[in-house]
Every structure is written in structure tokens, then in C-alpha cells.
Design goal:
Helix content is 16%, strand content 45%. The chain is an alpha+beta fold. The model has no long low-confidence stretch (mean pLDDT 95).
């Protein structure tokens, strides 16, 4: 079970195994140390390009809730230069906890943080309020694709992601703070860029949103089999 710890998250006990294959988006077969083959839930709707290679060590959480169809959830994979968090639920939990603890300076000074706030015809991940501060809407994206030190988002074409950017741009034009927050769930990135080679329209939409007043924040993490924390701001190039 994931729990908060001083603005970071602790995983609880994880089980190490070897990835056999990921399939049907939400399923992964994993060979455990006792040679048992288990099927784990893969909590990631993206392509997981560059971080779903069969034969890599992975880390699973175990859940004994009898209502769950799958007892295991895939949390991380070991890549050559870093552990990589693959659970797309983790960034929202981590950014919320870190913002509340003052670990993200541009989001400090707010004393109320809400999750999953409806704006127009969709939801954004966080809404922050505080005395003397403009209301702030934040959409958080999980970034796991890194190539030669550069992190990219998205790893597949995302119409939903473009819709979120359009919503943020509308909010910025109404004088709200609007933030697109890219969380790099690994430790081997020196720079962030939109993945124009994968979804060029997302890159164009991101640049239009920035011109409309949307703020970009890019942070990486410190990640281990024990837990995950916000680490540092990462430079970006649009």
C-alpha cells in the first residue's frame, strides 16, 4: 500500500520479478523469484515505449483485497540507467503530497488542494487555493520515455492530452494560473522536450498553450524500491 511520507511516497513491500510480456495494455506476465508466473495489472494506458522490454527486472505490489481480479500491480521496471515508475496513478499522488509539503517552490503558498476538479467538459488533476494567491489549476502528465538524456511526452498519440492543454489555455486566458506539470518518473533525464516525432499535434498544442499563458513545470524524481520523492526541476526546450 502506498502511503505519504514527508511530501514523498513509500511503496510498502514490493516483489521483484522478470517481465515476460505486457499485453492488452493493462496486463503483464511476470516470472517471480520462485519461478511462478503471475499476471499483474499494468496501470499505464500509454505505449510504455522504452520501458516495457521483456527480460527486464520489475517490481510489483501485492494486494489481498478479495474483490480484485489481479493480486499484483506493476509499479517499476529496472532500466540500464534508472528505475522507472510505470504506475500512472503515482504522479498525481506524489505531486499533491509534495506541493502540500512545500517541495515544489512554484506551487508553494497554497493551503487548500483538491484533486480531480471538473472544468468545462473534462477534469484536471489538481486545484490549489490560498490567501492572496490566484486559483491554480494543474494537469499532471507521467513521463517515462527517455532517449539519450532527453525525456519526451507523450509516448503515443493523445487526443485527451491535447484536450487538457486546450482547457488549461482557456483558464489562463481567464486570468487563472494554469500549469501543465510533467513528472519524469525516472532519474536519467537532463532535458525535456515534447515528442514531436510521435505526436506532432501535441507539440503544436503545447506551444499554443504556453503562448496563451499556461506555465510548464518539469520535475524528475528520486526513486527506489522503498519509495519515491520529487527531486529537482528539469530544463525544457520547446
Amino acid at each position: 500500500m502506498i502511503r505519504e511520507n514527508k511530501g514523498g511516497l513509500l511503496w510498502g513491500p514490493l516483489i521483484r520479478g522478470i517481465l515476460v510480456k505486457r499485453y492488452q495494455r493493462f496486463l503483464a506476465d511476470v516470472r517471480l523469484g520462485n519461478h511462478h508466473l503471475v499476471t499483474a495489472h499494468c496501470p499505464n494506458t500509454g505505449s510504455m515505449l522504452g520501458c516495457s522490454e521483456p527480460g527486464r527486472p520489475v517490481h510489483l505490489s501485492r494486494h489481498d483485497n478479495p474483490s480484485r481480479r489481479l493480486r499484483y500491480t506493476w509499479e517499476m521496471i529496472e532500466m540500464p540507467d534508472s528505475l522507472v515508475g510505470v504506475n500512472t496513478r503515482t504522479p498525481n499522488l506524489l505531486v499533491k503530497a509534495a506541493a502540500a509539503a512545500g517541495k515544489i517552490p512554484p506551487l508553494s503558498g497554497y493551503d487548500r488542494i483538491k484533486s480531480e476538479v471538473r472544468t468545462g467538459d473534462s477534469r484536471l488533476d489538481l486545484f490549489l487555493e490560498g490567501p492572496g494567491r490566484r486559483p491554480c489549476f494543474v494537469e499532471i502528465k507521467n513521463c517515462t520515455l527517455v532517449d539519450k538524456g532527453t525525456a519526451y511526452f507523450p509516448d503515443a498519440v493523445t487526443r485527451r492530452g491535447r484536450k487538457h492543454l486546450a482547457n488549461l489555455a482557456e483558464l489562463a486566458e481567464k486570468s487563472h494560473r494554469a500549469v501543465i506539470f510533467f513528472l519524469i518518473q525516472r532519474m536519467d533525464a537532463r532535458l525535456f522536450r515534447p515528442a514531436d516525432h510521435i505526436d506532432p499535434e501535441y507539440g503544436r498544442t503545447l506551444r499554443r498553450a504556453v503562448r496563451a499563458g499556461v506555465e510548464i513545470m518539469v520535475y524528475d524524481v528520486g526513486i527506489s524500491p522503498q519509495g519515491i520523492d520529487i527531486r529537482r526541476a528539469v530544463d525544457y526546450d520547446l
